[in-house]
Amino acid sequence: MTPPTALVTGASRGLGAALAAALAARGWRLVVDARDAGRLAGTVAGLPAPDRVTAVPGDVADPAHRAALAAAVGDRLDLLVNNASDLGPTPLPRLADLPPADLERVLAVNTVAPLALVQAVLPALERAGGTVVSVSSDAAVEAYPGWGGYGASKAALDRLTAVLAVEHPGLRVYAVDPGDMATDMHRAAAPDDEDLPDPEDVVPAFLRLLDDPPPGGRLRAADLLLVEARR
Question: Which residues cross the membrane (predicted)?
Answer without folding.
Answer: none
